[in-house]
Amino acid sequence: MERAYKLEFAGERAGSLYVSCCGLSKTEPLHSFGPAQKPYYLIHYILRGKGRFSLRNKEFQLSSGNGFLIPPEELSFYQADEKEPWTYIWVGFQGEMAERILQNIGLTVVNPVFCSDHSEELYQAVKDMMEHNTYGISNDLRRNGQLQVFLSVIADGVTTQEHGEVDRADHYVERAIAYIRSNYCNPIRVTDVADYVCVNRSYLYTLFKNALGMSPQQFLTNYRVHKAMELLRTTELPVESIALSCGYTDPLVFTKAFKHVKRISPSGYRKEVRTGEINKNQDYLKQIEGTLLLKGGTMMKEQLLAKFGEVFGSTEGAAVYFAPGRVNLIGEHTDYNGGHVFPCALTIGTYGVARVRKDNMLQFYSMNFEQLGVIGSSLEDLKPEKEADWTNYPKGVIWAFDKKGYPVTSGMDLLLYGNIPNGSGLSSSASVEVLTGFILRDFFGFDVTNQDLALIGQYSENNFNGVNCGIMDQFAIAMGKKDHAIFLDTADLSYTYAPIHLSGAKIVIACSNKKRGLGDSKYNERRSECEEALRRVQKVKKVENWGALTEAEFEEIKGAIGDEVLERRAKHAVYENQRTIKAVAALQNNDITLFGELMNASHVSLRDDYEVTGIELDTLVEEAWKVPGVIGSRMTGAGFGGCTISIVRDEAIEEFIKQVGEAYEKKIGYAADFYVVEIGDGPCKLK
Fold this sequence. Notes:
The chain is of the alpha+beta class. The protein is 43% helix and 21% strand. The longest helix is centred in the last third of the chain and has 25 residues. The chain is globular, with a radius of gyration of 29 Å.
């Protein structure tokens, strides 16, 4: 049996909240609907029986007392149980207030399922709607009133599944994103978004930076620009009309915003699309809106597993893992010179889904490089290949395990997703290496420690991929500890954890967006120069490495180097090591001002003595030094592009990003990206 009435409304009757359709359905066994989309919100509430519901690759097993929301334009599927097919009531509705009401209740695309024990009240509300199914103002008002009763009953007793797993901050961000999606075409401002979410603008800024790595203004601008891209690709509308359609009343302001995001004018973008020079299949909006879901927890795990199943056919036997990225607070280019470093693991990094195969084949897939598809190899043919691209990193680790006496005896399928900007200097490659080693240890039971994983990762990068990196990156990632940095002596790998208390300040990463790879940079050249300088000094004095010398000892013997360039390289290695020791002591004494001064001095040395900065990194740092509230700023990583790290007072972060970002784009010609980061743990298997 099925009773259902579909009610259509003329435009003038559409208001802030109104019924589109409603009904009662008693289904047959295995009766299904979808996959399909609806143009309105649709809530089902189960009176009797069982069934399953799928939305965004997540499946829910439901029974009487459960309900589920299908948002508009979202692909969904639901099916009755074979033995106990369900009977449910359903209401479709829309209007200006619909999304906001559902957000306040706690029903979203992330949390679409609820429980309620008020079945009789919900049934009576829908029954009343069905009984007043004819047109006319009286019945319209009656139905819409019962819709409000229906929603109020849900709100009164609702318990959303996974509600405890969803961070309140993410809920605010999700509501803000929903508001932007619905209102980007109007000239809204960030203050309007904050008012809608009911938080102040500064707090909203912090929430967005933590959740998405960008400010609310950046998100709003990016969303508008990428909506404009759709119109530029698919319509012949003039740029002025597209600007208005995307919330810009001034075409010149729109053009400036578009160029800031895409580094090309709107008309230039349209021209390149027409000539096929821009990938029409790019989908920035899905990527950025998915960032919140890929932040962690159950939903992130479900999404990754769903993608793994899509790529490799099933998820049977698959497990999900994570390895962080890293940033070095101070101590740059000292790790291969026997000095000290002071890195920490980050909460951003690389996620992996993997399973063992029954053959010797290796199948790799990256969600960050989907255009490359699945890249295959085998255990019998492990060698670095240019066409293997990023897979040379996991292949190298498998190769290194074998060389160290831990042979990998079965192939595997591996899917990766990283939220570390590639080429940024935050060690995306080392993150992949440690992640691969962690997975191999879990799969094959190898008796290796996390420190061993770091050493194997370094060995693979040195000997398989030909990059003479030190141990710092892999060590920081493998040994990471939440809210602590690692004071590591790279000469003997002795280390201590140092708690990081920045007292009213945060770590801000600025990505120059000048990409570089260690192999094709001057990284190897700098290492060779330090080694040559050391060989010359060792002819007159016994010196194990540059980390063994104080500044005064270096000044006494530097004449033996006999080359001005080599002398400057060695000077940086010695002085940077001593700066690192002093910086850690400063933190232990809660002297954050001295710590910042040592960071600044580190950058000057990297710029003048080691010459690894360049105009991009120098601009970011020098502009940072001008901003009140910046405690210290320096380049981090290998250099030659990549990132800077700054310690910034909380109240100055927004101005820092605005001022440094504008100055950088004006001087360099394209935008930098900024990330407020947190210190996290080392690799793990997600439960």
